[in-house]
Amino acid sequence: MSQLLRFLAIAGTLTGYTQSLSTFQWPNPLLSYADNQLYESDLDSFVAGCPGRDNTTVSAQWLRIAYHDMSTHDVDSGTGGLDASIMYELDRPQNVGEGMVQSLQDFNGFGLTTPFFGMADVIALGAVFAVLAQRLFPSPNKILLPI
Hints:
By secondary structure, this protein is an all-alpha fold. 54% of the residues lie in helices and 3% in strands.
């Protein structure tokens, strides 16, 4: 009887392991879409040269909204983080400024959100491009964050 139980335990473990190996497929259309947005889109043109806007830069505004969205993360409760909840938190005192609204308008205007690539992904992508713009497109303007 113990040999049968041992066999069933091993068989169940191996079955679960082989199923987990077969679930990932490449090319994965979800990852391909994200890669396409990161490497082939023209989002960098919006922050190239760090264009100014409202006594700051577009890059700074994009980085600021990403920071304010993710800074609500609570490790203990597992809530918050970069989840695009900033869209509903613009009335909080720490989220003031026209740059927050303008950044969300920028991100909505790109039309990148899909059922599998949400606003949180677009905000994160905006933060990546905001930082890369400083390295790829040198400019006398620097990211100045009024946090």
